[in-house]
Amino acid sequence: DIQMTQSPSSLSASVGDRVTITCQASQDISNYLNWYQQKPGKAPKLLIYDASNLETGVPSRFSGSGSGTDFTFTISSLQPEDIATYHCQQYDNLPLTFGGGTKVEI
Amino acid sequence: QVQLVQSGAEVKKPGSSVKVSCKASGGTFSSYAISWVRQAPGQGLEWMGRIIPMLEKTDYAQKVQGRVTVTADKSTSTAYVELSGLRSEDTAVYFCARASPPGMATFDCWGQGTLVTVSS
Q1: Is A44 within 8 Å of B107 when comparing Cβ atoms?
Q2: Which of A62, B31, B36, B108 fits B48 for a cystine, CB–CB 3.0-4.6 Å?
């Protein structure tokens, strides 16, 4: 199975800050990586697919980059509504696997 | 607009089975894959398996293989996951999620989640 290592597991930032989360795959997954946002008590929501493509309707302050084994997710200017847990997910191979999640707090 | 609506919360005894449903409205049910993803309390997301109704094809994670069965009823646009031999570690929120072709692995629509509690 491909292991996804996400860091940090939690972070605290201020409104307007730039926030960066990393996700490392245990083997080369090309760009087969997605990012999801999950608010407490809710289902995840797709934000970024294919490592860097913004899902329709998602604000442009969210972005993703990377390929191979190292990926980055960025919120350019943190907003109060961005308080959530963020998950990366690889789909290069079955089983589909997720990172451990990053909880973003203000 | 596609919507996935799941069945309600369940409380089960260890060793028993549970079956959770996920009804799709909007879109073409058979053309997509429906995956099941679970989340134990305070933990991350774990993919369990999926079905592609059009191909009648299923894939399972090895961790739960042998205990999990994913099925779909195309006539009612409903997918199901059944988990047998329940243990306390199976206590989790179970989500269904839709994935589109070609990869059938990017989840663009999720159900609301179903809490399954395993307790004696």
Answers
A1: yes
A2: B36
Name which of B26, B10, B24, B6 is nearest B112 in CA terms.
B6
* Dihedrals phi, psi of B88, to nearest 5 degrees: -60, -30
Total length of chain B: 120
| B35 torsion bin: left (phi>0), alpha (psi -120 to 50), beta (else) | beta
User: What tens-digit pLDDT sequence spans chain A (106 residues)?
Assistant: 999 999 999 999 999 999 999 999 999 999 999 999 999 999 999 999 999 999 999 999 999 999 999 999 999 999 999 999 999 999 999 999 999 999 999 9
Q: What is the dihedral of CA A104, B3, B8, B11, to 10 degrees?
A: -50
Chain A: residue whose CA lies nearest to B113:
A43
Instruction: Write the residue in A1, A87, A94 that is nearest to B45 by C-beta.
Output: A87
Query: Is the Cβ pair A43, B95 closer than 8 Å?
Result: yes
